[in-house]
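W.,

You were right to be curious about this one. When I first looked at the sequence I had no strong expectations either way, so I just let the prediction run and decided to look at it fresh. Below is the sequence, 113 residues in total, followed by the output.
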Amino acid sequence: MNLTAKATDGVAILSIEGRLDGQNASEAEAAFAGLAAEGHSRFVLDFSALQYISSAGLRVVLVAAKKTKAIKGSLICAGMNEAVREVFEMSGLLGILETADTADEAAGRLASR
């Protein structure tokens, strides 16, 4: 798994590449927590290069969503391929998380909030 974080127009974008599973979930969670600790409150989780997500990865997304809600921020999950989207759908998370087709679309939405 590779993580890339950048901030644009007050929106923190965390791009996750490869696999998000039990072996690296804590690293992804720590990266998100670091962005929140820097004072960010608007987040995009960019999954455009994510090939696989496990239940441990879904937990990272849920923790990020809860932390974002606690700081009265916004989070959008973007760029899900069909396989990743199916995991989110089967888990019921698509009904509670905001999504976008691309990270740029998500960042645009958040920048205007």
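Here's what jumped out at me. The longest strand covers residues 11-20. And, maybe more interesting for your project: Residues 2-100 form a domain with the Transcription Regulator spoIIAA fold (CATH 3.30.750.24).

Coffee later to discuss?

I.
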